[in-house]
Amino acid sequence: MQVTETLNEGLKRELRITIPAGDLDTRLNDRLTDLKDRVRIRGFRPGKVPIAHLKRVYGRSVMAEVLEQAVNETSQQAITDREERPAYQPQIALTEDKDEIEQILEGKADLAYSVTFEVLPPVEMPDFSKIKIEKEVAKVEDSVVDESIERIAEQNRPFAPRKDGEASETGDRLTIDYLGKLDGEPFEGGADQDAQIQLGSNSFIPGFEEQLTGVKAGSDIVVKVTFPEAYQAEHLAGKAAEFDVKVKEIQAPGEIKIDDEFAQSLGMESLDKVKDAVREQIGKDFETQSRSKVKRQLLDALDEACKFELPEKLVDSEFEAIWQQVTQDLERAGKTFADEGATEEDSKADYRKIAERRVRLGLLLADIGDKNEIKVTEEELNRAMIDRVRQFPGQEQLVWEYYQKNPGALAELRAPIFEEKVVDYILELATVEEKTVSRDELFHDPDEEHDHHHHDHDHDHDHDHGPSDDEKPKRRRTKKADKE
């Protein structure tokens, strides 16, 4: 095998590898020797078929297998000998000249091919002790617990049918059938039976609930509304519609009593036990939010502190995955980039930066994890698998077997665990100062004028664990569509 470097620019590498015809012939003879003990050819006893005869019968097909194996082995060996780590699976290019291919298959010519790849960049570790993180923490106040319990009680409020002839009031729960029409014709998704609507909840199209206030059970009425301009279904947005509504039942809200009896209706021993459980859950929610903001600060600090050349193909791959999701989201919403206050060209530039950030942080976190021997244990991976399996009741065995048989699927479970462990490692070394804030401050998003997207995409390289908090570029927010 002869290896010649034909390109070495930045992270890009290209090798020209030549395997002499003699080496290929030796490989071919070895394969045919192994084959002669297994084939059955009329006129020859088992194991006694001459190699020359086998070569005439099976030479071309076996040579094709020999070439594939030779290319795989020699390309891997060439890269190993260089002590370089490709950022992704190297690309191999063989000759496309038919005459040359024939010569190689017949054992009359050397096999020459090229291998192109990009190497992982050298990463200079920042001084983690100089990273300063402000961790916002909020106390679970009694008032917050009380508010949460009141919401639970409201969700479990009893309702009782109104007396015959009584008109509906705000707060009542109605059971209705309805049929929506545009220009007198029913439209898809505009009908339902035994639908429940609570007057005053603003869960239907603006103006719908108001026209059901003051009606009686058994009434048939026509509700006239106009869909919001920002409605999610483009063919309905801004359109005037009529709904034929039959009021089947009207229920008035009953009194809520938050006491031990209420707690027991929830399966708890007492109201104090309910409060303890609610306080614990809110505390977990607070900690999750605090952790999220700390992690964002840390990744921002790492992204700022570490600048190095990125493998172009990894960035391209990440950008394409993000861009596909973005365009699909817009298509589903019936929107364009102009609707969101941007141009496609500017948006591509913004998302390209996000792709670069993801790749940079992914490589950095992977390098930190490798150098500090941070591993995901089998126990941790099994717990993640069990959690995923539980999401598919009735299909547990199939899902479990899927993950057992698919290394790529397991990698998707392993990546976020690895990421969190690396983040924990860095936070142990960084300077983290706690700051007590209110609940509203804790959950305030300084970038709330723009949405955030979560993209989890694995690259070909095992060490690439992309961070999971990428944001959507700033643009004018579109008004959320009203729920029908």
Automatic annotation (TrEMBL):
Gene expressing this chain: tig
SUPFAM superfamilies: FKBP-like, Triger factor/SurA peptide-binding domain-like, Trigger factor ribosome-binding domain
Free-text note regarding domains: Consists of 3 domains; the N-terminus binds the ribosome, the middle domain has PPIase activity, while the C-terminus has intrinsic chaperone activity on its own.
Bias (Basic residues): 474-484
EC code: 5.2.1.8
Catalyzed reactions per annotation: [protein]-peptidylproline (omega=180) = [protein]-peptidylproline (omega=0)
Keywords per UniProt: Cell cycle, Cell division, Chaperone, Cytoplasm, Isomerase, Rotamase
Protein name: Trigger factor
Role noted for this protein: Involved in protein export. Acts as a chaperone by maintaining the newly synthesized protein in an open conformation. Functions as a peptidyl-prolyl cis-trans isomerase.
Gene Ontology process terms (BP): 'de novo' cotranslational protein folding; cell division; protein transport; protein unfolding
UniProt superkingdom: Bacteria
Keyword flag Signal: no
